[in-house]
Amino acid sequence: MRMSGVTPGGPPSPRKGTSGGGGAAFKIKKTYSVIVFIVLASLDNVAIQLVPPLYDPIARAFEVPEGVVAVVTAVTYLVTAVAAVGWAFAGDRGNRRPLLVIGTILWAVGTAATGWAPGLTVFVIAQVVGAIGLGAVGSVGFSVVSDLISPRRRGLVMSLWGLSQGIGTLAGTLAGGLLGAADWRRPFQVMAVTGTVAAVAYLFTADIRRGESEPQLAGVEYDHRISREQLPEILGRRTNVWLVLQGLSAQVTFGSFVWLPRLFQARAEEQGYDSATAVAIGAVFATLFQLGGVLSIIGGLVGDRLQRRTPRGRALVASAGILGGVPFFVGLFFLPMRVHIDEGSVPLGVLKSVYQEPTVAFALLAALSGLALTSANSPNWFALIADVNPPEHRGTVYSLGNLVNGVGRAAGNGLVGLVFSALARSLPPPANYAVGLAAFQVFFVPTGIMYYMASRTSPKDIDEVREVLAARAAEAGVRPSSSPP
């Protein structure tokens, strides 16, 4: 059997009671912990997304081209991904809660320093410090959440986990554009306070045991931990290879999406709105058009349902969703839109434009459809990582995938800025942004293909994980529960 490495913790032992002692008090604490993890997964994405809507005012404040600020953002994505590998490996070996507290404090400090930065150098350093802390929240948090979810409901619950991150992205775009329209430093100051409160909230979460939701480990105190010698074993699982590599091409496209506010800002400026109003319009439009991500819950439910019928189900749903969203996004980028902002608030004016201007309504429909399809990727990716890996490997595999995601996202965010600049020589804004964003949709094609390949390898890997967990439970003298279909 391929996953047979011996870990420092030795064989599992029979579990005496539930984690934390059981009872109503622990159930309340466990529910509180789930809420904290989901909220914090959202907040770290708010922090990540604050800068892109403010490229223009930050660049003007530091007297540098917008592309320089975009490159800083690309670097922070990469730093977050690299740091996550170290955080995750440490989490898979030891106590995860202190790591989450430390990581949250770091990103709060980095965010506060960003809002205070007097020049570009301090701005870059602050962003990097915050990025290191952000690496802990996603990778270690995923490991904890995966231990709370039974295999039958992984798609649904992971869609909520992913949705919280999507909401954070939307909130970051909106907060950056609205709070930062007049003063770009304000949203960073607000988030710094929020991060400090979050770090305190972590201190009261429950200590969730590894493998707590696995049917094969019912009644077992699971003591296995990852070791460096097991890294080749992890990379030897073919499904892991496809799940990790798909992020390289997928995130090139997703990375380019951070420029959506800039596309809509340019369209507003073309209509004659001043810079501050145009920034706010761009942020509101980008937020409104990304609401389709809420439908990731449907993608998770469909993945759960199809997975019970065939072990290829989750990967097939992700493949179809990624490829199906491409034409809708291309339509979104090229649809002409006009917005009517009176003396009232920008958000209200944008909402009125949805029913006053048919092109805005069509653009909203295209955005919702495209995001509803591509968002099926997220919950099924999370769930597949948990399905094809034992508990002590999940955080590390997630972080390796996140590292490749970070490389792809950094490449997409950085390269698309260069493409926009090159296109601007012959295509004035907003046409250069529309053409550039549409061209980057081509990277979704290899992503869909790799998910299809994962659908062919995942059945074998899932069966092997179940066999390994059942064997470990048998070593402890506990008869495991039957595996889910």
Automatic annotation (TrEMBL):
Pfam families: MFS_1. SUPFAM superfamilies: MFS general substrate transporter. The chain crosses the membrane at residues 34-55, 67-90, 99-117, 123-145, 157-182, 188-205, 241-260, 280-303, 315-339, 359-386, 407-427, 433-454. It is found in: Cell membrane. Residues 1-21 are annotated as: Disordered. PROSITE patterns: MFS. Residues 30-458 form the Major facilitator superfamily (MFS) profile domain. Keywords: Membrane, Transmembrane, Transmembrane helix, Transport. One of its GO terms (molecular function) is transmembrane transporter activity. This is Major facilitator superfamily (MFS) profile domain-containing protein. It comes from Virgisporangium aliadipatigenens.
